[in-house]
Structure formats: C-alpha cells, structure tokens
Amino acid sequence: xxxxxxxxxxxxxxxxxxxxxxxxxxxxxxxxxxxxxxxxxxxxxxxxxxxxxxxxxxxxxxxxxxxxxxxxxxxxxxxxxxxxxxxxxxxxxxxxxxxxxxxxxxxxxxxxxxxxxxxxxxxxxxxxxxxxxxxxxxxxxxxxxxxxxxxxxxxxxxxxxxxxxxxxxxxxxxxxxxxxxxxxxxxxxxxxxxxxxxxxxxxxxxxxxxxxxxxxxxxxxxxxxxxxxxxxxxxxxxxxxxxxxxxxxxxxxxxxxxxxxxxxxxxxxxxxxxxxxxxxxxxxxxxxxxxxxxxxxxxxxxxxxxxxxx
Length: 310
Hints:
By secondary structure, the chain is of the alpha/beta class.
C-alpha cells in the first residue's frame, strides 16, 4: 500500500513539474493542414531552429487538421482563445484562415506563415516588402517550366500528361492552368482528375492512367498524403510519376522537383526569432522566398515506371 502511495505521489510531482516547466516557456502554436513527410520537415525545421537559438525556452503545441477544413476552423478558434505568444502556419489554407479569424477577432498575436505561393492574392498580406499588421512569412516559389522540362528530358515521347489535384486547395486551379499552358507550348495535352479526399484517388485515377504518358502531382496536401496509391498505379502501368517536392521520391515517385521543405521551417523560425527575441513588429519584416530548386530521382522507382536509364 505504501509503495502504491509513493508511486502516486511521484507521478503527481512529475505532472506538476511538467506543468511548471511548460508554464515557464513561451507557448507557440503550430497549425498544419495534414500529415505527410514534406509538412513534417517544415515543422521540424521550425522547431529545431527555435531550439538551437534558445534551448528550452519554447513550448510548441501542434494542431493538425487531418485534411478537414471544418476541423481546421475549429482548431484556429481554439488557438485564438488561448494565450499563445506566436502562431506558425503551414500552407495557404491554414495561413489564410488564421489571418481571417484573427483579423475578425482583432487579435494582435504574431502570425508567421510559410509555404504560400501568392500571399497577396490570397489576402494574407498587402505587400511583400511591408506586410503590415501582425503577419509576416515565407513565400513559396513555383517553377513548373523547369519541372516539366526535367520530366521531358527523361521521357522524350510524352504526349499526354495526367494531373491529379484537389481544386478546393487554394491556388491549385491557378497552378493547373499554368501547367496546361506550358504543356500546350510543347504540343502536349493535359488531362486532369479532381480528387477532394485521399480515399477518392484509386477510384478516380484508375480509369485514366492507362492513357497517360506521365503523371504529375502539385504541392497538393490532399494528393501527396495519398501518394502511395498513385505510386502503385504508376508502377503497374509503367508511367513516370513527377512530384513537385523532394520528399516524394523517397516514397516511390520517379522524380521530384522542388526545394528542401525543411528550409521553409528554418526561414519561418528566423522571422519568429526576429519577433520574439529582437522585438521587431511582424508587419515590418519583409516576406522572403525559399527558391533553391533541385531535381531528385529515385532510380529504382524510375525503372519500375518505364524510364530507361543509361
């Protein structure tokens, strides 16, 4: 009995200690739309950079919407009600919704967004040089011309490209039109499949993949979350899969063209530190891009997907 009481008291002391420890740290909320390796790298880069600069000073709480827009709205409302010192948002939808909610509630909590390709167009900021208000962040660059050129270089006989994307994700319809324009200049056609949920991918893509020469995936959280399904289809039909990120080749895409996602988190952390350590107002910190693009190839996946390597 005494041993049981001792164990309970020990557990209570640990819980109190943890509570005090978290209470002494600066609370930071992280909002991510879904789980997949690229987004995990962004979060990792942010946390590591913050910790390296000020070890043990911050307490991070991650909110994951799991691809559900209604859940994301609920999580933002929860974040708004709590006393967070800063909010770090990943992706266009998370950043857009957070700034909207905070503006309506007249909250001045600093927001650092990342991985948004058109922050002005999505009304997150009014100027990249002088964002204004309580917002700053890291811009995502898009280079579809280079990406498609890399794909064509490795498969010269492409005529029909299949693009799978979620049109409900902000900015992706614009990206779809840009890809279509570039392919048209190369005398190629684009066929699109719209998927609003990951569990729709197999049923929606299967009827079209046999007539495609290649499949492209954008920076699309819905589709990238279900990449394994597309990899299996591409392997079965020997069709190369080109992703717009550098983590997807590790999951079976033949190619990935993009930036290292961890850099978004690192750059976001630098801005957060300017706010929290240097005392700079968020709206005075210019928006900066992550623009160091590279091509990654998975040779084994490329062979399975019909690419003849030297």
